[in-house]
């Protein structure tokens, strides 16, 4: 069994998949079970209990943008599941060329969503993946399947913490998924902040995609993954396809049978 691990700066997700990996009719490679916990924190009892209940050896494959989070998972596996194999992925493990200035600094999460986009896009069109985490990234793949780079901007909570930390009286405010989209005109301070965070992100994503299309000279296929962006995608990118757990799907794609 494969334990695909996506270690972000805020949360760590472990997806369990049978080997060999089989893609669904829509091309997706979703884990049969998803476990998550805050990055860098000890594994919660429920997560540890589930992992320890698996009698067969696990094949751990880790994609990480947080070194402390990687150390936490590695230490737990070595102590509690020494029979397993573990590999921390690098860019050299991924089937994608990077046409950027500093390929060694591109996050594994960005590369993996580009790998998935390459599997799902039309061969005649480029692709753009909008990925939400602690940061929101735009990731661009050309017709040839090469990663061109993209854009990085702060996510909802990072923006909210910046407002709180940089002012005397503005409160820390969460963007609540169940209350999206918020009204554009906030009737109190918290509502006004939610409006600015959410609709500001909608505008930023729309403009980034428009400028990318202009630069490429053609309309890319659009994919969205992560957090609250399923609703943002519906509002700002009418042709976008929302894909959950796209980083984990990227790890899973490395284990598809040859020819798939």
UniProtKB/TrEMBL annotation:
SUPFAM superfamilies in the record: Actin-like ATPase domain
Signal peptide positions (record): none
Source organism: Pirellula staleyi (strain ATCC 27377 / DSM 6068 / ICPB 4128)
Subunit description: Homodimer.
GO biological process: coenzyme A biosynthetic process
Pathway: Cofactor biosynthesis; coenzyme A biosynthesis; CoA from (R)-pantothenate: step 1/5
Swiss-Prot/TrEMBL cofactor(s): NH4(+); K(+)
Protein name as catalogued: Type III pantothenate kinase
Main localisation: cytoplasm
Pfam families: Pan_kinase (PF03309)
Active site location: 109 (proton acceptor)
Xref: Gene3D superfamilies: 3.30.420.40
Record-linked InterPro entries: ATPase_NBD, Type_III_PanK
GO MF terms held by the record: ATP binding; pantothenate kinase activity
Co-factor binding comment: A monovalent cation. Ammonium or potassium.
